[in-house]
Design goal:
Bound molecules: adenosine-5'-triphosphate, magnesium ion
Radius of gyration: 29 Å
Number of strands: 31
CATH superfamily of the largest domain: Bira Bifunctional Protein, Domain 2
Largest sheet: 9 strands, mixed
CATH class of the largest domain: Alpha Beta
Distance between the termini: 21 Å
Number of domains: 3
Number of helices: 14
Strand content: 25-35%
CATH architecture of the largest domain: 2-Layer Sandwich
Helix content: 25-40%
CATH topology of the largest domain: BirA Bifunctional Protein, domain 2
Length: 581
């Protein structure tokens, strides 16, 4: 490709809302441009990188035996009603109506569509196992689209769905996908970890996320150096503190004027924070909106957890039967106070009424805690579970942190941040049961199919690579996903010897499968060198003053300096580098 014929629009500065390097450099290199918040166009060189990542994904999926197909992103609401996800998915589901008022969603994922195909096409065990995948645009009306391709509203996802006879079959399909994902992210040049994860609104049991390690990652990862435990902080099991054996003391109401937070109360009463009980109050909404389209409050909820702990919202939502994020909100203080007797800043478990109470699993083992007294300016000391109050549900609700110990081996934990580039799920019979996807076995007995689903964010992966690999001049693309492998420049415009040699190198490289850009524009060398850097092309060959002596400069984008070599050597090196991808 000749730069004179390439469409290039590099920017001197990125728009103000681009905060992180991948977003800044993808925009500044002109590889992507924003159409509207969370929706992007991919320009010619950017699209080449997308296609490369897609190709890696495709090769690895094919190698694992998955079959590529393509379904429409326009999905009828009926299928979502059948699976039960239409009401629970919430406002992230991009809903639309046709001219007849029939409802649809733009697919955020395709479990329903794939299960629908399988329930009508597959009847016999002879047709199983099967794994269908597609690479297509997905839609999620994210509350806060940001970070460019990392959290967009339209993005490219590879999604695969495996269907098996039984659990053992699912385990094998899952293993194949796990291996394929590992190869995909290795080939993309990412530093990543698979970590144990929550199933979220997709449902089912058993899941791992592939996390590209990065400070700008939105996921907290908890890991252990001593064993190989790694999980999202939301999923990590947190060990309960050992049950306390001290004698239960008498309840005592003490004045705590103006002391509303755990830190204030603990300080004022000179208690360690571990001896306090934190109350968090929520309102839970009905699954479906009423006739006016509004969600009504179904019940109030009080959650109690040791004062120094953080509540894990994912564990809480799971304890409530996996309800959607939009159906749970911090309670309106006034309304909940009237309904349940709670008092803002002074809420404790003793005497609350008309409210569902949930306690973290370590709370029943703790003795003589300090909690709100349900009276402005007062707390209760020596509150004991069982004697003074009980909860309807007792379950682990703790958010893991680096202060905890490894739930597997007891060693101290560490924390890192990651960008979730892929996730794999064992769904089991979650969808086949809801939608009636069955097969008959050798004895004509009917069974539900066992399902798994597996997603890779193709465009998010592109951003994650840029996030892990850039400098102050632009992205440093690994050869495997670079828009082109090499770029050939001349130092002096109008120099015939230089132009001729550059032309020869360009055609030889191109002929041997090295994707090469020839910068034949009528521009100063500095401009060309800048563009080569901002585009992040891995190999740069500069034909300069020594062209007539048969010497050119060979430079890698990863390195500061260059080497002087003969043209043949430069061509050979580039060829070998590309052959080794
Ligand atoms: P997140 O927790 O980041 O919102 P998710 O867990 O909801 O993502 P999945 O349902 O697991 O996402 O989708 C599969 C993959 O699709 C993710 O691993 C991610 O790489 C990609 N993806 C999901 N949401 C987005 C988005 N808004 N923008 C870009 N890629 C996304
Ligand atoms: Mg996910």
């Amino acid at each position: 490709m000749r730069m004179s014929a390439m469409h290039l629009n590099t920017l001197r500065a990125a728009p103000g809302d681009a905060e992180i390097p991948s977003h800044i450099w993808l925009l500044r290199s002109g590889m992507i441009r924003q159409t509207v918040s969370g929706v992007y166009a991919f320009m010619p060189l950017g699209w080449r990188t997308v296609r490369k990542i897609e190709q890696i994904v495709r090769e690895e999926m094919d190698r694992a035996g998955a079959l590529e197909l393509s379904t429409s992103p326009v999905q009828p609401a009926e299928l979502w009603h059948e699976s039960g996800r239409w009401p629970v998915y919430g406002p992230e589901l991009w809903r639309l109506k046709d001219r007849h008022g029939r409802e649809f969603a733009l697919g955020p994922t395709a479990e329903e569509i794939m299960t629908d195909i399988v329930r009508s096409d597959i009847t016999s065990y002879r047709q199983l196992p099967v794994n269908f995948y597609q690479i297509q645009l997905k839609y999620r009306d994210e509350a806060r689209p940001r970070y460019g391709l990392i959290r967009s509203r339209e993005f490219i996802m590879k999604d695969a769905y495996s269907f098996d006879r039984d659990e053992a079959g699912l385990d094998e399909s899952y293993r194949l996908m796990r291996d394929a994902y590992t190869r995909v992210f290795e080939r993309c040049g990412l530093e990543f970890w698979p970590v144990a994860a929550d199933n979220g609104p997709i449902g089912g049991s058993g899941s791992e996320e592939f996390m590209a390690i990065s400070d700008v990652g939105e996921s907290d990862i908890i890991y252990c150096d001593a064993c190989d435990m790694a999980a999202t902080s939301e999923q990590a099991v947190v060990k309960d503190a050992p049950a306390e054996t001290e004698a239960e003391l008498e309840l005592e109401e003490v004045p705590t004027p103006g002391k509303k937070t755990i830190a204030d109360v603990a300080g004022f009463l000179e208690l360690p924070r571990e001896k306090t009980l934190k109350a968090l109050l929520f309102q839970v909404y009905e699954d479906e909106p009423d006739e006016r389209g509004e969600y009504r409050i179904k019940e109030y909820l009080a959650v109690f957890i040791r004062g120094d702990r953080e509540l894990n919202m994912v564990k809480l939502r799971n304890a409530l039967g996996g309800i959607g994020e939009h159906l749970l909100e911090f309670a309106d203080e006034k309304l909940i106070g009237e309904a349940t007797g709670s008092v803002g800043g002074y809420t404790g478990p003793v005497g609350l009424h008309d409210i569902r109470v949930i306690a973290d699993s370590e709370v029943p083992g703790l003795k003589n805690l300090c909690a709100g007294a349900l009276r402005e300016g007062f707390h209760l000391k020596n509150v004991n579970y069982g004697r003074d109050w009980t909860a309807e549900t007792v379950v682990d609700l703790k958010l893991a942190s680096a202060d905890d110990v490894c739930p597997v081996c007891g060693a101290p934990l560490k924390q890192a941040k990651g960008i979730e580039v892929g996730q794999i799920f064992k769904l089991g019979t979650r969808y086949s049961d809801a939608m009636g996807a069955c097969y008959t076995d050798e004895n004509m007995k009917e069974h539900l199919v066992w399902m798994g689903c597996y997603g890779i964010g193709v465009t998010r992966t592109m951003a994650a690579v840029a996030e892990q690999s850039h400098d102050d001049r632009g992205i440093i693309w690994p050869l495997s996903v670079a828009p082109c492998h090499a770029i050939v420049l001349t130092a002096k415009q109008g120099d015939t010897a230089q132009a001729e040699l550059a032309e020869r190198i360009y055609s030889e490289l191109s002929a041997s499968g090295v994707e090469t850009l020839l910068d034949d524009r009528d521009e100063r060398f500095g401009v060309k060198a800048n563009d080569a850097d901002i585009l992040g092309i891995p190999i740069r060959i500069t034909v300069g003053k020594k062209a007539e002596e048969g010497v050119v400069e060979y430079k890698l984008r990863t390195q500061g300096g260059f080497e002087e070599v003969c043209p043949e050597e430069a061509i050979e090196r580039a060829r070998n580098a590309v052959a080794s991808i």
